[in-house]
Amino acid sequence: MKTVANHKTVTVGPPGSGTLTNSERVLDAYGLTFEDVKAKELDFTESAEAIRDGHVDAAFYMTGVPYGPVTDISITQPINVLGLNQDAIHKLLEEYPFLVAIHYPENTYEGTGGFDTVAVRMLITTTEDMDEDIVYDLTKLLVEQIDSISNTHSCGTTISKDTLLDGLSIPLHPGAQRYYKEIGMLQ
To answer: d(Cα 144, Cα 161) in Å, to the nearest integer?
Structure first.
């Protein structure tokens, strides 16, 4: 597996970013380090340009999928999407409960096969002293409009009532808990 060290370089996200942190976690799941892949800390746009121009071999992206700059590259030149194997996914899910396993279908990017990976769910957070009825109403509105929300962006296809509580790593507000209990999603 350490043969990746012979490649040019791999972008791992900009300094201080969640992508950088999660790139390190993914590499660790394979027993690799930033040194092994000649990591370069570039933002998403810089990474896409570096791939397009042949200056790097690969880039880590922790963003909504499909991501525009990667889509643009896939239209103009062949790309490969490297999903994660099930052992790495399992290791990451055990170690980082806020991650969720996800599968993207074939042609998520032009000409690519389907792939498995991990993702971080988007959360809406508030203070614990926010009015319980307001949080209840907001949660109810969002859940009842889930289809409309998921249809507004192509990455919305990964949002469903079945996955709303996946990867939850912080306590639910009492207002949200009350609504989820009411609809049978919590005990």
So the answer is: 9
